[in-house]
């Protein structure tokens, strides 16, 4: 005797979700190459007693507090809320694991083959882990209108092609790429050796028949000089000649890239179209706070996404690949593009 009966619609929905998850188990993804221990922090405005305080709620308020200290001094209290897995790569990879994909990770999650305890559960769920450097540390200051990521990355210079090859041979990387459906480069800005890793991976992709989709997240390139950014844009275009290339940008990043490419468009959808045309790649995604725009070779559009003015956590709220999936599910696009999004991203 059954004590629970689902409606026909509920059963159909459940079957679709189950079938979709099964299809994901056939997809192999390689993500890299950073890794951070994130300490989520609230900044104290006024403290009432040992246990209670009012937060500084906005970046504007925080900047004003710092500005008032110019020429004087200040004592600002940080209150840690949690310590967690961090880094653009591990967080994107963790999300994909939760969606049922087979995933391998390469990056700074522990040195000499020893996984840092913060990443152990994550590593246990991966198909393969190539760990070749210790993680960095980020003090993540959380505000209602955004976050300030204060990164300590002095040893991240060791995240490069030479160190990767010392841990995993070119032959082993080739075998891994031959069965990989999506290759993701995350946190380019914080990794000075990422261009070298991209060049090395591209040289392997040119040699193999099965070409994985490539995805890159620049991660706020303001601190990098124009020469560096132009170099990675050239590399992105080179990848586009060999395989489908997805460039993921937030609104500010898209403005920086557009300026360097000579693209002038205030509308994010048109900006995505023009950036894609300039680089001649398959996909560009721009994700502002309230939604996402995407441009492919034969479709472009914008979809409003979920938004809250009072987030519990702003760190790691999503990456461009998830925006692509959101666009597929919610945008009214033609059948050809819908099949393309389903085949590539779901």
List keywords for this structure.
346 residues, alpha/beta, UDP-N-acetylmuramoyl-L-alanine:D-glutamate ligase, 9-stranded mixed β-sheet, 5-stranded mixed β-sheet, 12 helices, 39% helix, disordered N terminus, disordered C terminus
Structure description:
With 346 residues, the chain is an alpha/beta fold. The protein has twelve helices and 14 strands. α7 runs parallel beside α8, α9 crosses α10 and α11 packs antiparallel against α12. The radius of gyration is 21 Å and the shape is globular.
Short characterization:
The protein is an alpha/beta fold.
What is the number of domains? 1
Major sheet:
9 strands, mixed
CATH topology description: UDP-N-acetylmuramoyl-L-alanine:D-glutamate ligase
Q: How many individual β-strands?
A: 14
Low-confidence stretches: 1-19, 320-346
The CATH top-level class label = Alpha Beta
What gap, in angstroms, lies between the N and C termini? 37 Å
Q: How many individual helices?
A: 12
Q: What's the alpha carbon Rg, rounded to whole Å?
A: 21 Å
What order do the SSEs take from the amino end to the carboxyl end, as H and E? Answer: HEEEHEHEHEEEHHEHEHEHHEEEHH
Q: Judging by the overall fold, what is the CATH architecture?
A: 3-Layer(aba) Sandwich
Q: Structural class, judged by helices and strands?
A: alpha/beta
- Mass-distribution shape: globular
Helicity range of the residues? Answer: 25-40%
Mean pLDDT: 84
Adjacency order of strands in the biggest sheet: 6-5-1-9-10-11-12-13-14
Strand content: 15-25%
- CATH-assigned homologous superfamily: Ribokinase
């Amino acid at each position: 005797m059954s004590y629970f009966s689902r409606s026909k619609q509920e059963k159909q929905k459940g079957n679709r979700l189950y079938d979709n998850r099964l299809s994901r188990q056939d997809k192999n993804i390689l993500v890299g190459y950073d890794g951070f221990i994130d300490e989520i922090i609230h900044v104290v405005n006024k403290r009432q007693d040992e246990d209670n305080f009012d937060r500084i709620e906005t970046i504007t308020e925080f900047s004003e507090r710092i500005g008032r200290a110019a020429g004087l001094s200040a004592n600002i209290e940080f209150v840690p809320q949690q310590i967690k897995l961090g880094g653009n790569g591990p967080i994107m990879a963790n999300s994909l694991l939760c969606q049922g994909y087979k995933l391998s990770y390469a990056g700074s999650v522990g040195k000499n083959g020893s996984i840092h305890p913060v990443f152990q559960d994550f590593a246990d769920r991966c198909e393969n882990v190539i760990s070749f450097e210790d993680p960095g540390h980020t003090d993540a200051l959380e505000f209602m209108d955004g976050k300030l990521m204060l990164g300590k990355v002095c040893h991240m210079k060791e995240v490069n092609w030479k160190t990767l090859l010392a841990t995993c041979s070119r032959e082993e990387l080739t075998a891994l790429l031959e069965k990989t459906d999506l290759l993701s480069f995350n946190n380019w800005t914080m990794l000075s050796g990422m261009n070298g890793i991209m060049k090395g991976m591209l040289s392997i992709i040119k040699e193999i028949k099965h070409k994985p989709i490539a995805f890159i997240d620049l991660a706020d390139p303001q601190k990098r000089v124009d020469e560096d950014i132009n170099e990675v844009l050239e590399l992105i275009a080179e990848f586009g000649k060999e395989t489908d290339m997805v460039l993921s940008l937030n609104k500010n990043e898209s403005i920086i890239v557009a300026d360097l490419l000579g693209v002038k468009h205030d509308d994010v959808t048109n900006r995505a179209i023009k950036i894609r045309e300039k680089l001649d790649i398959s996909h560009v995604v721009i994700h502002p706070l309230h939604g996402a725009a995407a441009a492919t070779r034969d479709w472009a559009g914008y979809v409003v996404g979920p938004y809250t003015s009072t987030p519990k956590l702003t760190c790691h709220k999503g990456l461009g690949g998830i925006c692509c999936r959101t666009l597929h599910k919610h945008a009214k696009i033609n059948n050809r593009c819908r099949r393309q999004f389903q085949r590539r991203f779901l």
